[in-house]
Amino acid sequence: MAEQTVEEQDFGTEAIGNLDALYRGALRLTRDPDKAQDLVQDTYARALRYQHSYQAGTNMKAWLFAIMRNLYWDRFQKANREAVSIDDIGEFALYDQMRDDLGEGPETEVLDRIARGEVVDAIEKLSPLHREVVLLVDVEGFSYKDAATVLGVPIGTVMSRLHRARQQLQKDLFEYAVESGIVPGGLNKRS
Amino acid sequence: MYDCEDCIRRLDQLVDKELSPPEVEEIHVHLDECGDCTKRYRFQEGLKRLVKVSYQEQKAPDALRERLRQQLGA
């Protein structure tokens, strides 16, 4: 291999700094640790090949995610890319449901009693398009603008997907909270 | 002046820090005097934090990290 320039070294160091985030993203796309590793490796290989197109000082994490997502869709999902639908789940919020059931809104402490594994399970149950926006914005801290760039959609779409995803998430967590006795359920008859 | 509906409509953007400074100021004027919206806001914020910590425990395998380090010369 030829001698590396300082820029290439910096590029490599910054790219590796995003590895955990990329791996998490790959895991939720592929849902398989081996496939996730392959996807991450291919993402870095492509990033290395196109590193001249990366502008230093811009958001490298967003750039790497965009590469990874394109690779994934090209490779694994070409056939059903269009088939992914977003269900209209209607307006439902954990907060409102609990307020109706309890007579007042839940205290934030309720959240402390929800196991992290439950949260991950609830996110895994979201549709792929909802799941990825929650993970980009909530877990990886992307701005709406960067998330929109990665996903190739307008900012308004990021916002509406995020809103619906959070509603679905709250619905699932509410059911869990009732089942596990964290909050009393069934005070109001829901038919 | 924002009412509860204005506030609720902007809660996602507030917890995601996507509002402009004047909007943040305006929404806090409402939050200061509305206990229900304040609770709702805290809850949304808490949920976002919970999602974040729930996932951040997932780390890439060391072997993968080492392989990529060599590949990238980092």
Please sum up the structure shown.
The complex is a heterodimer of chains A (191) and B (74). Chain A has ten helices and no strands. Chain A is mostly helical and 191 residues long.
Say how many strands of chain B there are. 0
Question: Mind telling me the CATH class of the largest domain in chain A?
Answer: Mainly Alpha
Net shape of chain A: elongated
Secondary-structure content class of chain B: mainly alpha
Number of strands of chain A: 0
Largest sheet of chain A: none
**Molecular shape of chain B:** elongated
Q: Flag low-confidence runs of chain A.
A: 81-92, 187-191
Order of helices and strands of chain A: HHHHHHHHHH
CATH topology heading of the largest domain in chain A: Arc Repressor Mutant, subunit A
Separation of the first and last Cα atoms of chain A = 68 Å
List its traits.
heterodimer, A: 191 residues, mainly alpha, Rna Polymerase Sigma Factor, Chain: A, Arc Repressor Mutant, subunit A, 2 domains, 10 helices, 0% strand, disordered C terminus, B: 74 residues
